[in-house]
Amino acid sequence: MATATTATATATGNNNAIAKRKPVFIKVDQLKPGTQGHTLTVKVVSSKTVKVTTTNKPGRSSMLLSRPVHPTRIAECLVGDETGTIVFTARNEQVDMMAAGATVILRNAKIDMFKGSMRLAVDKWGRVEVTEPATFEVKEDNNLSLVEYELVNVVEE
Question: What is the mean pLDDT of the chain?
Answer without folding.
Answer: 81
